[in-house]
Amino acid sequence: MTRKLFLDSVAGVSASQWSFRPAPDRWSIAECAEHITVVEDMLMGLARTGLSANAPVAGPEIRANDEKVLAAYADRSSKAQAPEPARPTGRFSSRDDVTAAFRQKRDANIAYVQTTQDDLRAHLVTNPNLKADPYQVILMMSAHTERHVKQILEVKSSAGYPAR
Questions:
Q1: pLDDT tens-digit profile of 143-161?
Q2: Is 9 within the bounds of a domain?
Q3: Among the listed residues 17, 42, 52, 25, the one whose alpha carbon sits nearest the alpha carbon of residue 145
Q4: Which of 58, 97, 104, 116 is the most buried (most CB within 10 A)?
Q5: Count of domains for the chain
């Protein structure tokens, strides 16, 4: 669902709309799209770390957090600072390049989820900001995309957004 949501949100966006920033400290649609695409790989990499036999074992209390994970990552009411590797830097030269990269990454991730025999619930992914199983990290991918599609829609509704 969020694959389509994202692709629809950037379809038909003109060059001036693509690069429009509502304020100096706010991202353009291009920057949001780049961030979504870069984080796609980062989250899948994080999920895979939880598949290691060396990862801590996940208990049933972790599974109870699925809905909280989805809600927290999609929520735009609290702003967060993207980690340095996930910040937009102009990695893609055009809307077509970033959407092609996103499609390739998301399609590969969907194929993995649909065919994996890996136990996505067995182990934990942990770092100072996270305690989740790989399944939940994959949920984060979808919710993260939803969060930034909301941001794209905010850009589109901003004062001064170009008509074309």
A1: 999 999 999 999 999 999 9
A2: yes
A3: 42
A4: 58
A5: 1
CB 121 within 8 A of CB 50: no
CB atoms within 10 A of CB 158: 13
Q: Residue 147 is encoded by which pair of tokens?
A: 């969060």
- Residue count of the chain, please give it: 164
Mean pLDDT (whole number) for 27-47: 96
Domain of residue 45 covers 2-156
pLDDT digits 0-9 by tens, 72-101: 889 899 888 899 999 999 999 999 999 999
* Confidence at residue 79, expressed as pLDDT on a 0 to 100 scale: 83
Give every CB contact of residue 120 below 8 A, 6+ residues apart in sequence.
Answer: 47, 50, 51, 133, 134, 135, 138
Would you say residue 162 lies in a domain?
no
